């Protein structure tokens, strides 16, 4: 087991997840955009062995540079820029959030070949997009933080690449600590996927530190 650390993950002062949580650092956001460009370009390429070796060396040099700026997870920016599409996280599809109310949210997303299965969005990417929008809604409007308990996705039609898709989310019910959400993804008028999700509000002991949940496990 690796050494256990205490990570305080609960702070009642955290703002609504539709708003920024860390100071804007647009150079960092630009770095993540550049990384996305690399992901897409590498996915689309079949370089010669020489070109592949040269690019690998360049990328390892970038990794070396970034390791010299390493910070802990509470301090990192990646995934926390809730004010910009994609939250400055290279894995996240770039989701533009258009409308937000206390119980609904809508957004738009376009994915390229990096997120492709075969000529259409990969089936693992669709839940990633739903989780992004539904989790924010579940944890917004002053609702205490909850974790995703399930995310049941139905794939209704192929979701095309390089094409803007609309995503909707709605809080449909609340029972005690449980929040039920529903979402849908459309290509124009065509329903490509829908989802039912449950978020469970964290108990006090779950909000103190995440290491309790991970105790005794390798990580
Ligand atoms: C600079 C600052 C930047 C900060 C910026 C970062 C912010 C950061 C914030 C961190 C705060 C959270 C961070 C979230 C991050 C994820 O959402 S993680 C995403 C993946 N999800 C997980 O890993 C969750 C893993 N699972 C769990 O932790 C636990 O199972 C859960 C979901 C918390 C529930 O556990 P529990 O609280 O012990 O639940 P329990 O009391 O047994 O059940 C409560 C009710 O829910 C029902 N339930 C629970 N699970 C299920 C299920 N799967 N299906 C059906 N019903 C269920 C139970 O039946 C029960 O129902 P009732 O009997 O009350 O009717």
Automatic annotation (TrEMBL):
Its EC number is 3.1.2.2. One of its GO terms (molecular function) is hydrolase activity. Keywords: Apoptosis, Cell membrane, Cell projection, Cytoplasm, Fatty acid metabolism, Hydrolase, Lipid metabolism, Membrane, Transit peptide. It is a peripheral membrane protein. Belongs to the THEM4/THEM5 thioesterase family. It is an enzyme of class 3 (hydrolase). It comes from the Bacteria. It catalyses: octanoyl-CoA + H2O = octanoate + CoA + H(+); (5Z,8Z,11Z,14Z)-eicosatetraenoyl-CoA + H2O = (5Z,8Z,11Z,14Z)-eicosatetraenoate + CoA + H(+); dodecanoyl-CoA + H2O = dodecanoate + CoA + H(+); hexadecanoyl-CoA + H2O = hexadecanoate + CoA + H(+). It is found in: Cell projection, Ruffle membrane; Cytoplasm; Membrane. Residues 121-189 form the Thioesterase domain. This is Acyl-coenzyme A thioesterase THEM4. Pfam families: 4HBT. It comes from Rhodococcus gannanensis. Its main location: membrane. InterPro entries: HotDog_dom_sf, THEM4/THEM5_acyl-CoA_thioest, Thioestr_dom. The keyword ATP-binding does not apply.
